[in-house]
Amino acid sequence: MSDLSQLTQQALSLPFIDRVRLAQDLWASVQPAEDETSNEVAEAVKEAERRDAEFESGVEKGVPHDEAMRALRKSIECD
Which of 2-16, 27-41, 44-58 has the lowest average pLDDT? Predict the structure, then answer.
């Protein structure tokens, strides 16, 4: 078992409130700092809005959460 797998298992065994706090801390660590509001962030927002509009209009269909997570885990070899 890899270090990441072990860490994940340990994190998942934490009490609910601790998992929430950990998730918040991890999410904050991947958010750009206020001074990093660059074209890259603006482009990501623009792309997210475009995708949302396609979904809302019916041009694109959604993917069930479990299917999306399975594909994501497979793509990063986390299965």
Answer: 27-41
